[in-house]
């Protein structure tokens, strides 16, 4: 609840505003205009712009409009000329019935600022209805003994017009017995009475036919006639007399059909048929829609139709009592209809604004008017809206209310409000009307896109294919429409050396990220960049997020042996003393792997050995150790092939070859290779072979030239034969050097070379040549070596 000190100033402001409005209205009395009924549609009524003291343009600028009490569209305001014109023909009798004067109340509503001017339109009557009698023929039974001057009431004619246009006079056709006297009742209505001028003689004339004419006061006058049949009766000298000349009753408008309204009673001093009384309604103010029924025998008046106070609030009846002798008496019945609370309050919207932009200050949403057709306490109303909505009602002039916002609205919190306006009257029981208004809140670009995460971590395995989808970022915008459409982009990297444009790309519509090229873990393990999300509002709002890409290692690198060095030169020989104990560390194979993780976990394995079981390789560190004691029977030269394998999937491996030489001790100065002595002899033999081969090639070349000349001269071809050379025997070569056939050599040769460990020079010594097998024309085989 608000503090009392804050609520009272606001109430005082409202009271002051209402007081000022009342003062303003009091200074401008309602203007009255008049128009004749049945005037053609579009006829000029008044110049409102001049009467209000406003320019013609001000009426359109201030949204002027005419509002009638019953929401009828009888009048129209021409905003171009400021004239008030008729929107339709007006029928005074339909609008007001017998009520005179006939006044239409309406208001001129101006907005920006709000002003209301009250006015009245007097609809003047024209003589457009002729008097009509309720019956085509009236029958009067008059005793022959009636004295001169006896008055016989006649049913009066009904004219829908009012004032001077209503019935003003009655006259009767010429005759020798009667004349008509026109009487005026207290309410101004005129009715006829037949007055006997000369005595009647039934034996002379049993009946008479007269014509009664009702004439109104219009110009020109209109008239209506009825036939009167007069039956002359025998003597009946007492007319019925009512107990009351006027019966006044009150009936609630919600009385059920068939309920008793009043019972009239008359008596006749005569006896027999002349004393039997029957009742009838001689006049009713609402003959067209008569809601009452009179019992001719009992005089009871009952309802036969529902009453409605808001339509007709009173009824006047003339009751006639007739005896069997033709005499009659008359009384009047006045029925007042009492109002009950049977009408629900009504609401009519004058203006409605929807949607309303969010973040706007106090804004008028709707202007409406309320009313209740009941009267008194039943017509008083209370207007309110439900709690929990950011709206409030402000009462304007008379029964006009304004629905306004309490402050700025936030579409992201709620985009639509259903406002229920409740109008409750103060009657018993209380009736209420509810009217719902849907208010939409339009969007303003006041929310930047928000990423689902402040940072993203993406994983991609190296050696990926180009344009590979590696992940996505996502941002949402709480706005709607184009204000919520998000576009993604790569922001310039903070590291100027990072070639971001060549590494990744982003789909601007959905934030999908793609690797533009194959990534190499060994070159780039991870990189970071920032992505931006921008909406399409005005002005544009944006946000950014960090993306970290981790490159996952793949087993794409084989182990590389650092020791012993595998460079194609003469192998390095490890010396092993024959006195070494089991487990003696001979050497250690050292290898690395360019991968990481388990892809770089290396294991060592002895793949081949000259003498299995003599040496072993430790699987985890590559150490080569003796497995047992060495003996004199063990060969002096050993060759070990060690397999180095990583733990990737699939695993990759490399091999290296170790040459071991068993020696008696490390103090021997000369440690030549066992093949050093025969190598000198093989070098001499190789020189001889080279000289012979060179001579053979030269001879073959010369022979070929001669054969070519001979073929050209003799035009015949000869085939040249080529001999084969035998392959010399020799020991199994250590290292082979391949010499391709170039220059004058027609074949490729392989030579076994060795760099002696104890020599002071690095000169190669050529040993015996190894001639390859002659390859067939269809296939080739690897050279075979003799041991």
Q: Could you characterize what this model shows?
A:
The chain has 787 residues and is mainly beta. The longest helix has 39 residues, at 676-714. 10% of the residues lie in helices and 39% in strands. The chain is rod-shaped. A hairpin with a 4-residue loop joins strand 28 (391-395) and strand 29 (400-405). Residues 1-26 form the signal peptide.
In short:
By secondary structure, the chain is mostly beta strands. The chain is built from 6 helices and 52 strands. This is Protocadherin beta 15.
Work out the number of β strands.
52
Q: What is the CA–CA distance across the termini?
A: 112 Å
Mean pLDDT: 80
Q: Per DSSP, what share of the residues sits in E-state strands of 2 or more residues?
A: 35-45%
Number of helices: 6
Shape: rod-shaped
Search tags:
single chain; 787 residues; mainly beta; four-stranded mixed beta sheet; 6 helices; 10% helix; rod-shaped
């Amino acid at each position: 609840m608000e503090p009392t000190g804050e609520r009272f100033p606001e109430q005082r402001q409202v009271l002051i505003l209402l007081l000022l409005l009342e003062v303003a209205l009091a200074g401008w009395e309602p203007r009255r205009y008049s128009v004749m009924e049945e005037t053609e549609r579009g006829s000029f009524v008044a110049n409102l712009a001049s009467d209000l003291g406003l320019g013609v343009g001000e009426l359109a600028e201030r949204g002027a409009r005419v509002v009638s009490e019953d929401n009828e569209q009888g009048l129209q305001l021409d905003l171009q000329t400021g004239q008030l014109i008729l929107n339709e023909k007006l029928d005074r009798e339909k609008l007001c019935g017998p009520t005179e004067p006939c006044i239409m109340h309406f208001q001129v509503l101006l907005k920006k600022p709000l002003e209301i001017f009250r006015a009245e339109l007097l609809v003047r009557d024209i003589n457009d209805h002729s008097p009509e009698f309720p019956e085509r023929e009236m029958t009067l039974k008059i005793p022959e003994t009636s004295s001169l001057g006896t008055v016989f009431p006649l049913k009066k004619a009904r004219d829908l017009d009012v004032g001077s246009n209503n019935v003003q006079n009655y006259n009767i056709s010429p005759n020798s017995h009667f004349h008509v006297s026109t009487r005026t009742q207290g309410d101004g209505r005129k009715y006829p009475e037949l007055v006997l001028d000369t005595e009647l003689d039934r034996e002379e004339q049993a009946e008479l036919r007269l014509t009664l004419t009702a004439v109104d006061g219009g110009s020109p006058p209109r008239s209506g006639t009825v036939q009167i049949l007069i039956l002359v009766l025998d003597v009946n000298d007492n007319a019925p007399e009512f107990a009351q000349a006027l019966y006044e009753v009150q009936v609630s408008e919600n009385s059920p059909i068939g309920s008793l309204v009043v019972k009239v009673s008359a008596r006749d001093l005569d006896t027999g048929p002349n004393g039997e009384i029957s009742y009838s309604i001689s006049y009713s103010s609402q003959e067209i829609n008569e809601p009452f029924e009179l019992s001719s025998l009992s005089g009871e008046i009952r309802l036969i139709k529902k009453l409605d106070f808001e339509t007709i609030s009173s009824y006047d009846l003339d009751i006639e009592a007739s005896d069997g002798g033709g005499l009659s008496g008359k009384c009047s019945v006045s029925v007042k209809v009492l109002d009950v609370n049977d009408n629900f309050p009504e609401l009519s919207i004058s203006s409605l604004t929807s949607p309303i932009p969010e973040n706007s200050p106090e804004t008028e949403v709707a202007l409406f008017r309320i009313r209740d057709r009941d009267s008194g306490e039943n017509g008083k109303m209370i207007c309110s809206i439900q709690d929990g909505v950011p709206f409030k009602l402000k009462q304007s002039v008379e029964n006009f209310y304004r629905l306004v916002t309490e402050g700025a609205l936030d579409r992201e919190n709620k985009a639509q409000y259903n406002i229920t306006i409740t109008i409750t009257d103060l009657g018993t029981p209380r009736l209420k009307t509810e009217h719902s208004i849907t208010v939409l809140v339009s969007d303003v670009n006041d929310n930047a896109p928000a990423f689902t995460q402040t940072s993203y971590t993406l994983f991609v395995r190296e050696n990926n294919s180009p344009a590979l989808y590696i992940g996505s970022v996502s941002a949402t915008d709480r706005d709607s429409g184009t204000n919520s459409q998000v576009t993604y982009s790569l922001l310039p990297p903070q590291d100027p050396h990072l070639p971001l444009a060549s590494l990744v790309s982003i789909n601007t519509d959905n934030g999908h990220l793609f690797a533009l090229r194959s990534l190499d873990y060994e070159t780039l393990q991870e990189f970071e960049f920032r992505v931006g999300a921008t909406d399409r509002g005005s002005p544009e709002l944006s946000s950014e997020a960090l993306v970290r890409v981790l490159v996952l290692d793949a087993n794409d690198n084989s182990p590389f042996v650092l020791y012993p060095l595998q460079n194609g030169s003469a192998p390095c020989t490890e010396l092993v003393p024959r006195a070494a104990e089991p487990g003696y560390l001979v050497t250690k194979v050292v290898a690395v792997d360019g991968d990481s993780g388990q892809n770089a976990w290396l294991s060592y394995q002895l793949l081949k050995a000259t003498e299995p079981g003599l040496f072993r390789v430790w699987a985890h560190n590559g150490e080569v150790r003796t497995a047992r004691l060495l003996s004199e029977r063990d060969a002096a030269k050993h060759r070990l092939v060690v397999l180095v394998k990583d733990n990737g999937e699939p695993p990759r491996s490399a091999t290296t070859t170790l040459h071991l030489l068993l020696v008696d001790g490390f103090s021997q100065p000369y440690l030549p290779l066992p093949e050093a002595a025969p190598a000198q002899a093989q070098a001499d033999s190789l020189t001889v072979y080279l000289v012979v081969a060179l001579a053979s090639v030269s001879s073959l070349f010369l022979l070929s030239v001669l054969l070519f000349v001979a073929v050209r001269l003799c035009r015949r071809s000869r085939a040249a034969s080529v001999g084969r050379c035998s392959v010399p025997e020799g020991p199994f070569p250590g290292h082979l050097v391949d010499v391709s056939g170039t220059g004058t050599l027609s074949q490729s040769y392989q030579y076994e070379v060795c760099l002696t460990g104890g020599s002071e020079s690095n000169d190669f010594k050529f040993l015996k040549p190894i001639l390859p097998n002659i390859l067939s024309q269809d296939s080739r085989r690897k050279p075979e070596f003799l041991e």
